[in-house]
Amino acid sequence: MEVATISFDRFNVLQDEQAQARIREARAKLGDKAVLLCHHYQRADVYQHADLTGDSLKLAKLASETDAEYIVFCGVHFMAEVADILSSDKQIAILPDLAAGCSMADMANLAKVERCWRELSEVLGTPDEHITPVTYINSAADLKAFCGEHGGIVCTSTNAPTILDWAFGQREKVLFFPDQHLGRWTGFKKGIPLEDMHVWDPDLEYGGLTPEQIKSAKILLWKGHCSVHQMFQESHIRRWRMQHPEGRVISHPESNLEVCRNSDYVGSTEFIINTIKAGPDNTRWLVGTELNLVNRLAEEEKPRGVIVEFMAPTVCMCSTMQRIDPQHLAWTLENLLEGTVVNRIEVPPHEAEMAKVALDRMLAVS
Ligand code: 13P
Ligand code: SF4
Predict the structure, then answer these.
(1) Domain 9-101+320-347 has CATH 3.40.50.300
(2) Does the model's pTM come out above 0.70?
């Protein structure tokens, strides 16, 4: 018998407190059948319901380890895809609002990466012999599959240095997409000169590069960025340090090179949390990452005299992850209670198989 989907219209009108109560009730009834995985950037009114939290790497590992029938992903689209790829065929990955995408992930697509590969082959001969494609996990599943098929790998902001070593162990050059900043910072920390890293603009022929630039490059950096982390500027750090010379600055590597260079610490969201929590009492921090996480850290650390401040003067949260609100979460969970799966994220089998090759390479070395 076909079960009808409960319409979202009935949830859209709920007050936040009503939605919260419905989430708690549905969670209790679903028990171990559903697990709620939540990225650290998730808004507080959703984050409070998480069973497990983490950055992209930790969540990918958790998704591969859970045996819950339903993996409800409070994050963005590519994260739910990774959960689908790394979980068993019997498990179901769900994204409570399909509009929760990642603007950086959208800056690369398969057609443009394949064109890039073709153009590289005209200059270098067979690219598979010279270049390791490395995709940041913030990318669509078909790009992970491309890396799987071409001897490449996936990385996250936690393991990018290890993955870059692996990539150069395979071939002499790396094509890094879609985040130029993570690629540049990781290469820079490895001692690769900036003039050996060229930006590949996918909207220009040959990425806008000359054959000589392509031949001499160690890393080709895809012209993509995170709309949240691009807001942080070196001038924010300079001004803050004048007022708080004793303070410490910590940034996410999706920030630009000058921000990273002028920070005391650079690392993934999990690294940022752990570093501040392990730091001494009564310290002051300037943090260059997403606002929901910074606000949460500021509240949690206040009792021990730790002051946590946000780097940019403007509000910058991940507006797409923000789409997962209590109303969508309540709607998703109540449908599951009725036996209906809404917003399933299902990667086509061939794509999933090749994407898993690239993800498994990553998990094996990190
Ligand atoms: P991490 O989760 O690896 O810190 O990356 C941050 C991010 O922007 C996720 O989209
Ligand atoms: Fe994408 Fe940036 Fe949001 Fe992360 S913070 S999901 S990279 S838009």
Answers:
(1) no
(2) yes
